[in-house]
Amino acid sequence: LTELFSKLVEKIRDVEYIDEATLQEIAREIQRTLLKADVPLDLVKTFTDNAVKRIREEKPPAGIPPREYLIYVLYEELVKLMGGEQPAEFKPTKKPYIVLLLGVEGSGKTTTSAKLARYLMKRGYKVGMVETDTIRPAAFDQLRQLAEKIGAPFYGERDGKDAVEIARRGVANLKGVDVLIIDTAGRHRNEEALLQEVKAIYDAVNPDEVVLVVDATVGKLAAAQAEAFMKYLPIHTVIITKMDSTARGGGALAAVAKTGARVKFIGVGEDVEELEPFNPRKFVARLLGMGDLDALLEKIKAVFEEEEVLEEIESGRLDLLTFKKQIDSLMKLGPLSKVFQLLPGGLAAKISEEQIELSQKNLKKWRAILSSMTMEELKNPDILNASRIRRIALGAGVTPKDVKEMLTVYENLKKMSKTLKRQMRLRMAR
Ligand code: GDP
Ligand code: MG
Fold first, then answer.
1. Fewer CB in a 10 Å sphere around the end CB: N or C, the chain?
2. What predicted TM-score, i.e. pTM, was given to this entire model?
3. What is the ipTM of this complex?
4. The domain 292-429: what is its CATH number?
5. For 97-285, which CATH class?
6. Which helix (H) or strand (E) holds 127?
7. Which ligand is located closest to the Cα atom of residue 246?
8. Which residues have CB less than 5 Å away from ligand 2 (the ion)?
Protein backbone atom coordinates (compact mmCIF):
# COMPACT_ATOMS: atom_id res chain seq x y z
CA LEU A 1 0.00 0.00 0.00
CA THR A 2 2.83 2.35 0.89
CA GLU A 3 4.30 1.84 -2.52
CA LEU A 4 0.97 2.49 -4.25
CA PHE A 5 0.59 5.72 -2.35
CA SER A 6 4.10 7.02 -2.78
CA LYS A 7 3.62 6.65 -6.54
CA LEU A 8 0.40 8.60 -6.30
CA VAL A 9 1.97 11.33 -4.20
CA GLU A 10 4.83 11.60 -6.70
CA LYS A 11 2.31 12.09 -9.46
CA ILE A 12 0.45 14.79 -7.56
CA ARG A 13 3.68 16.63 -6.88
CA ASP A 14 4.24 16.99 -10.61
CA VAL A 15 0.88 18.68 -11.10
CA GLU A 16 1.33 22.39 -11.81
CA TYR A 17 -2.13 23.57 -10.97
CA ILE A 18 -5.42 21.87 -10.40
CA ASP A 19 -8.25 22.36 -12.85
CA GLU A 20 -11.38 20.24 -13.04
CA ALA A 21 -9.88 17.76 -15.53
CA THR A 22 -6.75 17.27 -13.41
CA LEU A 23 -8.89 16.83 -10.33
CA GLN A 24 -10.96 14.14 -12.06
CA GLU A 25 -7.82 12.36 -13.16
CA ILE A 26 -6.34 12.45 -9.67
CA ALA A 27 -9.62 11.21 -8.20
CA ARG A 28 -9.60 8.25 -10.60
CA GLU A 29 -6.00 7.52 -9.68
CA ILE A 30 -6.83 7.59 -5.95
CA GLN A 31 -9.74 5.24 -6.55
CA ARG A 32 -7.55 2.80 -8.43
CA THR A 33 -4.96 2.93 -5.64
CA LEU A 34 -7.48 2.27 -2.89
CA LEU A 35 -9.20 -0.51 -4.80
CA LYS A 36 -5.85 -2.17 -5.44
CA ALA A 37 -5.21 -1.99 -1.71
CA ASP A 38 -8.52 -3.84 -1.28
CA VAL A 39 -10.46 -1.03 0.36
CA PRO A 40 -14.20 -1.78 -0.06
CA LEU A 41 -15.82 -0.01 -3.01
CA ASP A 42 -18.36 2.00 -1.01
CA LEU A 43 -15.60 3.38 1.21
CA VAL A 44 -13.53 4.26 -1.84
CA LYS A 45 -16.50 6.17 -3.26
CA THR A 46 -17.14 8.07 -0.05
CA PHE A 47 -13.46 8.82 0.35
CA THR A 48 -12.95 10.25 -3.13
CA ASP A 49 -16.22 12.16 -3.07
CA ASN A 50 -15.25 13.84 0.20
CA ALA A 51 -11.72 14.61 -0.93
CA VAL A 52 -12.81 16.01 -4.32
CA LYS A 53 -15.51 18.11 -2.69
CA ARG A 54 -13.05 19.60 -0.22
CA ILE A 55 -10.47 20.36 -2.89
CA ARG A 56 -13.10 22.05 -5.01
CA GLU A 57 -14.58 24.10 -2.20
CA GLU A 58 -11.73 24.89 0.16
CA LYS A 59 -9.17 27.47 -0.79
CA PRO A 60 -5.61 26.44 0.04
CA PRO A 61 -4.20 28.78 2.69
CA ALA A 62 -2.12 31.54 1.11
CA GLY A 63 1.40 30.45 0.23
CA ILE A 64 0.57 26.75 0.03
CA PRO A 65 0.67 25.44 -3.54
CA PRO A 66 -2.62 23.76 -4.50
CA ARG A 67 -0.92 20.41 -5.07
CA GLU A 68 0.47 20.40 -1.54
CA TYR A 69 -2.91 21.27 -0.15
CA LEU A 70 -4.29 18.37 -2.14
CA ILE A 71 -1.89 15.97 -0.44
CA TYR A 72 -2.88 17.48 2.90
CA VAL A 73 -6.59 16.93 2.20
CA LEU A 74 -5.81 13.41 1.07
CA TYR A 75 -3.98 12.81 4.33
CA GLU A 76 -6.82 14.10 6.48
CA GLU A 77 -9.44 12.06 4.62
CA LEU A 78 -7.28 8.92 4.83
CA VAL A 79 -7.01 9.37 8.58
CA LYS A 80 -10.82 9.48 8.74
CA LEU A 81 -11.00 6.36 6.59
CA MET A 82 -8.61 4.49 8.91
CA GLY A 83 -10.65 5.18 12.01
CA GLY A 84 -10.26 8.82 12.95
CA GLU A 85 -8.06 11.17 14.88
CA GLN A 86 -7.53 9.61 18.26
CA PRO A 87 -5.25 6.64 18.72
CA ALA A 88 -7.15 4.20 20.92
CA GLU A 89 -5.61 3.32 24.25
CA PHE A 90 -5.47 0.01 26.02
CA LYS A 91 -6.13 0.72 29.69
CA PRO A 92 -6.94 -2.00 32.22
CA THR A 93 -9.48 -0.35 34.49
CA LYS A 94 -9.96 -3.05 37.13
CA LYS A 95 -8.21 -6.07 38.57
CA PRO A 96 -8.20 -8.58 37.16
CA TYR A 97 -9.02 -7.02 33.82
CA ILE A 98 -10.28 -9.88 31.70
CA VAL A 99 -9.53 -9.81 27.98
CA LEU A 100 -11.13 -12.31 25.62
CA LEU A 101 -9.45 -12.92 22.25
CA LEU A 102 -11.50 -14.20 19.32
CA GLY A 103 -10.92 -14.79 15.64
CA VAL A 104 -10.89 -17.43 12.96
CA GLU A 105 -8.21 -20.08 12.86
CA GLY A 106 -4.82 -18.85 11.77
CA SER A 107 -5.68 -15.19 12.29
CA GLY A 108 -2.95 -14.99 14.91
CA LYS A 109 -4.88 -15.15 18.21
CA THR A 110 -2.45 -17.29 20.14
CA THR A 111 0.57 -15.31 18.99
CA THR A 112 -1.27 -12.07 19.69
CA SER A 113 -2.23 -13.23 23.21
CA ALA A 114 1.46 -13.47 24.01
CA LYS A 115 2.27 -10.20 22.22
CA LEU A 116 -0.39 -8.33 24.14
CA ALA A 117 0.76 -9.91 27.41
CA ARG A 118 4.33 -8.87 26.66
CA TYR A 119 3.21 -5.34 25.77
CA LEU A 120 1.36 -4.98 29.07
CA MET A 121 4.09 -6.62 31.15
CA LYS A 122 6.58 -4.08 29.81
CA ARG A 123 4.24 -1.42 31.16
CA GLY A 124 4.30 -2.93 34.61
CA TYR A 125 1.19 -5.11 34.61
CA LYS A 126 1.17 -8.65 35.90
CA VAL A 127 -0.45 -10.66 33.11
CA GLY A 128 -1.81 -14.22 33.08
CA MET A 129 -2.87 -16.25 30.06
CA VAL A 130 -5.47 -18.97 29.60
CA GLU A 131 -5.71 -21.34 26.63
CA THR A 132 -9.23 -22.64 25.92
CA ASP A 133 -8.67 -24.14 22.45
CA THR A 134 -9.67 -27.81 22.81
CA ILE A 135 -9.90 -28.43 19.09
CA ARG A 136 -6.23 -28.09 18.21
CA PRO A 137 -4.25 -29.95 20.90
CA ALA A 138 -1.09 -28.13 19.78
CA ALA A 139 -2.60 -24.80 20.88
CA PHE A 140 -2.09 -25.71 24.53
CA ASP A 141 1.65 -26.24 24.04
CA GLN A 142 1.96 -23.21 21.78
CA LEU A 143 0.63 -20.77 24.37
CA ARG A 144 2.28 -22.54 27.31
CA GLN A 145 5.65 -22.17 25.61
CA LEU A 146 5.03 -18.54 24.76
CA ALA A 147 3.97 -17.91 28.37
CA GLU A 148 7.18 -19.50 29.59
CA LYS A 149 9.22 -17.46 27.17
CA ILE A 150 7.85 -14.13 28.39
CA GLY A 151 7.50 -15.25 32.00
CA ALA A 152 3.72 -15.03 32.37
CA PRO A 153 1.55 -17.32 34.55
CA PHE A 154 -0.41 -19.76 32.39
CA TYR A 155 -3.47 -21.94 32.77
CA GLY A 156 -4.62 -24.64 30.34
CA GLU A 157 -5.67 -28.29 30.22
CA ARG A 158 -3.79 -30.50 27.80
CA ASP A 159 -6.64 -32.89 27.05
CA GLY A 160 -9.44 -30.62 28.14
CA LYS A 161 -12.84 -31.09 26.55
CA ASP A 162 -14.92 -28.19 27.78
CA ALA A 163 -13.62 -24.76 26.75
CA VAL A 164 -16.10 -22.93 28.97
CA GLU A 165 -15.03 -24.87 32.08
CA ILE A 166 -11.34 -24.30 31.26
CA ALA A 167 -12.00 -20.58 31.00
CA ARG A 168 -13.77 -20.59 34.38
CA ARG A 169 -11.02 -22.55 36.06
CA GLY A 170 -8.40 -20.30 34.44
CA VAL A 171 -9.99 -17.22 35.96
CA ALA A 172 -10.20 -18.95 39.36
CA ASN A 173 -6.57 -20.13 39.19
CA LEU A 174 -4.96 -16.87 38.11
CA LYS A 175 -6.76 -14.51 40.48
CA GLY A 176 -3.70 -12.46 41.46
CA VAL A 177 -2.90 -10.97 38.04
CA ASP A 178 -3.74 -7.45 36.82
CA VAL A 179 -4.76 -8.59 33.37
CA LEU A 180 -6.00 -12.00 32.30
CA ILE A 181 -5.89 -12.86 28.61
CA ILE A 182 -8.10 -15.70 27.44
CA ASP A 183 -7.24 -17.28 24.09
CA THR A 184 -9.95 -19.20 22.24
CA ALA A 185 -10.27 -21.71 19.40
CA GLY A 186 -10.70 -20.44 15.85
CA ARG A 187 -12.28 -23.52 14.37
CA HIS A 188 -15.05 -25.86 15.45
CA ARG A 189 -17.38 -28.43 13.93
CA ASN A 190 -18.81 -25.48 12.03
CA GLU A 191 -18.97 -21.72 12.26
CA GLU A 192 -22.17 -21.78 14.27
CA ALA A 193 -20.59 -24.10 16.87
CA LEU A 194 -17.55 -21.83 17.14
CA LEU A 195 -19.64 -18.72 17.66
CA GLN A 196 -21.80 -20.53 20.24
CA GLU A 197 -18.67 -21.56 22.12
CA VAL A 198 -17.12 -18.10 22.31
CA LYS A 199 -20.50 -16.72 23.34
CA ALA A 200 -20.69 -19.30 26.15
CA ILE A 201 -17.17 -18.37 27.31
CA TYR A 202 -18.17 -14.71 27.17
CA ASP A 203 -21.21 -15.38 29.36
CA ALA A 204 -19.15 -17.48 31.78
CA VAL A 205 -16.23 -15.10 32.41
CA ASN A 206 -17.87 -11.74 31.69
CA PRO A 207 -14.77 -10.15 30.07
CA ASP A 208 -13.97 -6.44 30.34
CA GLU A 209 -12.68 -6.21 26.80
CA VAL A 210 -13.44 -8.42 23.81
CA VAL A 211 -10.71 -8.36 21.18
CA LEU A 212 -11.22 -9.65 17.66
CA VAL A 213 -8.05 -10.72 15.90
CA VAL A 214 -8.12 -10.29 12.13
CA ASP A 215 -5.51 -11.32 9.58
CA ALA A 216 -4.66 -8.35 7.33
CA THR A 217 -4.22 -10.59 4.31
CA VAL A 218 -8.00 -11.13 4.12
CA GLY A 219 -8.29 -7.48 3.04
CA LYS A 220 -11.79 -6.13 2.85
CA LEU A 221 -13.28 -9.45 4.02
CA ALA A 222 -12.20 -8.29 7.48
CA ALA A 223 -15.52 -6.45 7.75
CA ALA A 224 -17.53 -9.65 7.21
CA GLN A 225 -15.54 -11.43 9.92
CA ALA A 226 -16.11 -8.60 12.38
CA GLU A 227 -19.81 -8.51 11.54
CA ALA A 228 -20.21 -12.26 12.02
CA PHE A 229 -18.76 -12.12 15.54
CA MET A 230 -20.65 -8.94 16.36
CA LYS A 231 -23.93 -10.79 15.86
CA TYR A 232 -23.12 -12.94 18.87
CA LEU A 233 -21.25 -10.70 21.25
CA PRO A 234 -19.93 -7.16 21.48
CA ILE A 235 -16.52 -6.54 19.92
CA HIS A 236 -14.71 -3.72 21.70
CA THR A 237 -11.36 -3.86 20.03
CA VAL A 238 -9.75 -5.19 16.89
CA ILE A 239 -6.14 -6.20 16.38
CA ILE A 240 -5.03 -6.62 12.79
CA THR A 241 -2.16 -9.05 12.38
CA LYS A 242 0.33 -9.70 9.59
CA MET A 243 0.45 -6.09 8.50
CA ASP A 244 4.06 -6.85 7.62
CA SER A 245 3.17 -9.34 4.95
CA THR A 246 0.53 -7.70 2.77
CA ALA A 247 -0.35 -4.65 0.74
CA ARG A 248 -3.99 -5.25 1.65
CA GLY A 249 -3.59 -4.12 5.23
CA GLY A 250 -5.08 -0.73 4.46
CA GLY A 251 -8.14 -2.51 3.10
CA ALA A 252 -8.55 -4.56 6.26
CA LEU A 253 -8.14 -1.46 8.42
CA ALA A 254 -10.65 0.58 6.46
CA ALA A 255 -13.15 -2.28 6.39
CA VAL A 256 -12.90 -2.77 10.14
CA ALA A 257 -13.16 0.96 10.83
CA LYS A 258 -16.41 0.87 8.88
CA THR A 259 -17.96 -1.57 11.36
CA GLY A 260 -17.34 0.93 14.14
CA ALA A 261 -14.89 -1.34 16.00
CA ARG A 262 -11.73 0.34 17.24
CA VAL A 263 -8.44 -0.95 15.88
CA LYS A 264 -6.02 -0.69 18.80
CA PHE A 265 -2.99 -2.64 17.67
CA ILE A 266 -1.40 -4.02 14.54
CA GLY A 267 0.81 -7.10 14.38
CA VAL A 268 3.91 -6.56 12.28
CA GLY A 269 5.80 -9.85 12.58
CA GLU A 270 5.90 -13.27 14.20
CA ASP A 271 7.94 -12.28 17.23
CA VAL A 272 6.26 -11.50 20.57
CA GLU A 273 7.71 -7.99 20.42
CA GLU A 274 6.11 -7.23 17.07
CA LEU A 275 2.91 -5.54 18.14
CA GLU A 276 2.35 -1.80 17.65
CA PRO A 277 -0.36 0.46 19.02
CA PHE A 278 -2.39 1.63 16.05
CA ASN A 279 -2.35 5.36 15.49
CA PRO A 280 -4.25 6.38 12.34
CA ARG A 281 -2.31 9.63 11.91
CA LYS A 282 1.07 7.95 12.12
CA PHE A 283 -0.08 5.10 9.94
CA VAL A 284 -1.33 7.39 7.19
CA ALA A 285 1.74 9.61 7.44
CA ARG A 286 3.88 6.55 6.84
CA LEU A 287 1.63 5.54 3.97
CA LEU A 288 2.16 8.87 2.24
CA GLY A 289 5.86 9.14 3.01
CA MET A 290 6.37 10.59 6.45
CA GLY A 291 9.32 12.92 5.88
CA ASP A 292 7.62 14.94 3.19
CA LEU A 293 4.39 15.09 5.05
CA ASP A 294 5.96 16.33 8.25
CA ALA A 295 7.44 19.32 6.48
CA LEU A 296 4.15 19.99 4.72
CA LEU A 297 2.03 19.84 7.88
CA GLU A 298 4.53 22.11 9.60
CA LYS A 299 4.24 24.57 6.75
CA ILE A 300 0.46 24.59 6.71
CA LYS A 301 0.46 25.15 10.46
CA ALA A 302 2.90 28.02 10.03
CA VAL A 303 0.63 29.63 7.43
CA PHE A 304 -2.32 29.44 9.77
CA GLU A 305 -0.15 30.98 12.51
CA GLU A 306 0.99 33.67 10.09
CA GLU A 307 -2.63 34.52 9.35
CA GLU A 308 -3.24 34.84 13.08
CA VAL A 309 -0.32 37.22 13.41
CA LEU A 310 -1.60 39.28 10.50
CA GLU A 311 -4.93 39.52 12.25
CA GLU A 312 -3.17 40.77 15.36
CA ILE A 313 -1.30 43.36 13.35
CA GLU A 314 -4.50 44.45 11.66
CA SER A 315 -6.23 44.81 14.98
CA GLY A 316 -3.41 47.18 16.01
CA ARG A 317 -2.05 44.92 18.75
CA LEU A 318 1.51 44.92 17.48
CA ASP A 319 3.97 44.54 20.33
CA LEU A 320 7.35 42.83 20.19
CA LEU A 321 5.75 39.58 21.28
CA THR A 322 3.62 39.55 18.15
CA PHE A 323 6.67 40.60 16.18
CA LYS A 324 8.57 37.62 17.61
CA LYS A 325 5.74 35.22 16.81
CA GLN A 326 5.76 36.55 13.29
CA ILE A 327 9.47 36.01 12.92
CA ASP A 328 9.15 32.48 14.25
CA SER A 329 6.49 31.62 11.72
CA LEU A 330 8.37 33.44 8.93
CA MET A 331 11.38 31.26 9.62
CA LYS A 332 9.26 28.16 9.30
CA LEU A 333 7.74 29.32 6.03
CA GLY A 334 10.87 29.57 3.93
CA PRO A 335 11.63 32.13 1.21
CA LEU A 336 10.49 35.53 2.38
CA SER A 337 9.59 36.80 -1.06
CA LYS A 338 6.78 34.25 -1.05
CA VAL A 339 5.73 35.23 2.42
CA PHE A 340 5.44 38.89 1.52
CA GLN A 341 3.00 37.93 -1.18
CA LEU A 342 0.71 36.94 1.65
CA LEU A 343 0.63 40.46 2.98
CA PRO A 344 -2.36 42.59 2.09
CA GLY A 345 -1.78 44.51 -1.14
CA GLY A 346 -1.00 47.94 0.30
CA LEU A 347 1.61 46.61 2.65
CA ALA A 348 3.34 44.29 0.19
CA ALA A 349 3.82 47.07 -2.38
CA LYS A 350 5.82 49.09 0.18
CA ILE A 351 8.45 46.40 0.56
CA SER A 352 11.25 46.35 -1.99
CA GLU A 353 13.31 43.41 -3.16
CA GLU A 354 16.35 44.66 -1.26
CA GLN A 355 14.36 44.96 1.89
CA ILE A 356 13.27 41.37 1.49
CA GLU A 357 16.87 40.19 0.99
CA LEU A 358 17.94 42.15 4.02
CA SER A 359 15.13 40.84 6.17
CA GLN A 360 15.95 37.29 5.23
CA LYS A 361 19.48 37.74 6.57
CA ASN A 362 18.25 39.54 9.62
CA LEU A 363 15.60 37.07 10.71
CA LYS A 364 18.02 34.85 12.60
CA LYS A 365 19.69 37.80 14.30
CA TRP A 366 16.33 39.25 15.26
CA ARG A 367 15.10 36.02 16.69
CA ALA A 368 18.20 35.84 18.88
CA ILE A 369 17.63 39.42 20.02
CA LEU A 370 13.98 38.83 20.80
CA SER A 371 14.83 35.62 22.65
CA SER A 372 17.12 37.61 24.93
CA MET A 373 14.33 39.94 25.98
CA THR A 374 12.18 39.45 29.04
CA MET A 375 8.45 39.00 28.69
CA GLU A 376 7.99 42.46 30.17
CA GLU A 377 10.21 43.99 27.49
CA LEU A 378 8.43 42.13 24.72
CA LYS A 379 5.09 43.41 25.91
CA ASN A 380 6.21 47.00 26.58
CA PRO A 381 8.97 47.89 24.12
CA ASP A 382 8.82 51.44 25.51
CA ILE A 383 10.84 50.48 28.56
CA LEU A 384 13.87 49.55 26.44
CA ASN A 385 16.59 51.97 27.54
CA ALA A 386 20.33 51.98 26.76
CA SER A 387 21.29 49.65 29.59
CA ARG A 388 18.57 47.12 28.72
CA ILE A 389 19.65 47.24 25.09
CA ARG A 390 23.27 46.56 26.11
CA ARG A 391 22.21 43.57 28.16
CA ILE A 392 20.06 42.18 25.33
CA ALA A 393 22.86 42.64 22.78
CA LEU A 394 25.27 40.80 25.02
CA GLY A 395 22.82 37.93 25.51
CA ALA A 396 22.13 37.61 21.79
CA GLY A 397 25.75 37.95 20.74
CA VAL A 398 25.10 41.06 18.62
CA THR A 399 25.92 44.75 18.92
CA PRO A 400 23.60 47.33 20.53
CA LYS A 401 23.35 48.86 17.05
CA ASP A 402 21.79 45.62 15.77
CA VAL A 403 19.19 45.80 18.51
CA LYS A 404 18.38 49.41 17.68
CA GLU A 405 18.09 48.54 13.99
CA MET A 406 15.61 45.84 14.74
CA LEU A 407 13.61 48.22 16.90
CA THR A 408 13.51 50.68 13.99
CA VAL A 409 12.13 48.00 11.69
CA TYR A 410 9.59 47.15 14.35
CA GLU A 411 8.58 50.82 14.72
CA ASN A 412 8.18 51.10 10.93
CA LEU A 413 6.07 47.99 10.82
CA LYS A 414 3.93 49.39 13.59
CA LYS A 415 3.43 52.62 11.67
CA MET A 416 2.59 50.60 8.56
CA SER A 417 0.09 48.58 10.48
CA LYS A 418 -1.68 51.78 11.48
CA THR A 419 -1.80 52.86 7.82
CA LEU A 420 -3.07 49.42 7.01
CA LYS A 421 -5.81 49.72 9.57
CA ARG A 422 -6.89 53.02 8.07
CA GLN A 423 -6.89 51.45 4.62
CA MET A 424 -9.00 48.58 5.84
CA ARG A 425 -11.47 50.94 7.44
CA LEU A 426 -11.67 52.93 4.22
CA ARG A 427 -12.21 49.75 2.24
CA MET A 428 -14.98 48.72 4.56
CA ALA A 429 -16.57 52.14 4.41
CA ARG A 430 -16.74 51.99 0.65
P1 GDP B 1 -4.44 -18.66 15.72
O2 GDP B 1 -4.85 -19.89 15.00
O3 GDP B 1 -5.44 -17.55 15.50
O4 GDP B 1 -4.16 -18.88 17.17
O5 GDP B 1 -3.09 -18.14 15.02
P6 GDP B 1 -1.59 -18.28 15.51
O7 GDP B 1 -1.32 -17.35 16.63
O8 GDP B 1 -1.28 -19.70 15.74
O9 GDP B 1 -0.81 -17.72 14.24
C10 GDP B 1 -0.90 -18.30 12.95
C11 GDP B 1 0.37 -17.97 12.18
O12 GDP B 1 0.44 -16.58 11.91
C13 GDP B 1 1.64 -18.30 12.94
O14 GDP B 1 2.56 -18.87 12.05
C15 GDP B 1 2.13 -16.96 13.42
O16 GDP B 1 3.52 -16.93 13.59
C17 GDP B 1 1.68 -16.06 12.31
N18 GDP B 1 1.50 -14.66 12.74
C19 GDP B 1 0.74 -14.17 13.74
N20 GDP B 1 0.81 -12.84 13.81
C21 GDP B 1 1.64 -12.43 12.81
C22 GDP B 1 2.12 -11.16 12.35
O23 GDP B 1 1.78 -10.07 12.85
N24 GDP B 1 2.97 -11.17 11.28
C25 GDP B 1 3.36 -12.33 10.68
N26 GDP B 1 4.19 -12.24 9.64
N27 GDP B 1 2.93 -13.53 11.08
C28 GDP B 1 2.09 -13.60 12.13
MG1 MG C 1 -4.51 -20.48 18.40
1. C
2. 0.69
3. 0.99
4. 1.10.260.30
5. alpha beta
6. strand 127-131
7. 1
8. 109-110, 139
